# Entry
Amino acid sequence: MRRTIVALFAVLVGIATTSPGATQTPQVVVSPVVVGQSASSELTAPAARYHELRMTAGQSVRINVRSEAFQPLVSVGRLNNGVFEELAFQRSGASDARIWFVAPGDGAYAVQVASFAPFGFGTYTLDVSAHPVGPAPAVTPIALGEALSGRLAKGGARIGDRLYQVFKLTTTERLQRVEIEVTAEGFRPALDLNLVPTETLPRLGSSTANFSTPALVRYYRTFPVPGEHLLLVSAVGADDEGSFSLVARALPRPSAVLPRAVVLTESAQGRLVLDETVVPSEVLGGGFRPYALYELRGRRGEKYDISVRAEGFPPRLELGGRVSGGFAVLRSSGVLRPGEVRLSHEFESNEVLLLRVSPHLDGRIGLGATPEESSFEIRAGRVTTETPPQRRAGQSFRIDVFACEGVPDADARAQRIVDMLRQRGWAPEGVTIADVRKRALSEATNRSAGYGLSDDRLRADRDEQDLAEAVIAQLARAAPPLPLQAGNSPGTASPNYLSVFVCRR
# Structure
């Protein structure tokens, strides 16, 4: 996957490629860099830049690239006759990228610096420092139904800047369904599950950290074949320490029969229970989620708006029908606001379709919620197809810019956006920007349904798209640019109001 991305990036920025994973560079190594020193250089579109780093086998380093001009990418590999063979890659925040690299052998390695945006360029600083690998982690067996205690402490095993411990779980049944829970004190926990032999310790990467509460992460998984599997417990924050408990529980097999579908009128109350019928993951060995099923009857030309409001979990709403293999999805809802999703459908014929309600994320009822807390309400109302109201010239608009708490530089970037949008002359003709405010979006709110934001995004009503495009264009004029994505429309109409979320790490 990563090699394909590198090749595509190379095409976008005009770097010739020779084969997947091999990038032909028109440029020699800019300058050598050694461990313990910094190097400053400039990225000029469209080519990447290279630095030579000599290392010995087993040597471990931390490489950091910082730039205020572009969002950097950093890769480590080898240059052979002008061809860059990538060994490791990383993209981090908006202005820096970090990578931890252990040399597989003696010799010269190439550090490649590029821009995340196809035509981003400017000056940057490259730092290379020694980074001890730490002791090899002990692998602690854990049985289903067993609870163990552990502690992350400095001096322990680490991957990158994260401390971790490794546990080995043995399953004896095919398609074994397991619930794994980590409760921590002193740090926010992350959990990685790896279907690999225990003698191979993988990199962290499949972590559920983004969806954990401050002290708890709970994950559900189906293990396709009996065997030994690795569980990696770590902290989200660099060098975070503390104690934790880990428990792995076997879950019963779900019913193989679909629940009885009921006729949906205006509204219905429902509840999801993990131990009942579940939707398996599309990938064998992945997670699963419980669901409830409803019928929606319609005539040709009728249009319905359907919404789900949930308590205790981020919901997903899917429209589809029965097939021999189960359920075929026609369309899925978008996340609109906390605890609510919505979709619309216009019937092309007289037919009966199915509505499936489930958690948005495979393997969870919610953010630490129990099945008993997973109630929801589903509504389906027939609407008259109308042309969206057109915004009249002379209207006055407000714009709120939300800085996500816990995101580095979010407050500073939000202030830059506010300053750019308070300038005159960028709005469409006849539109007045009455007020632009900077506000905070708490981590708790961003973890709730309807948010889950991890990028910089704009939300506007359907009839405000010309203003939304003007906002994006205005922020692109900043130096350096402030890239912004257009997001979904709000769950409910918000006339004369736009919201910008600054959440990209």
Q: What stands out?
A: DSSP finds four helices and 37 strands in the chain.
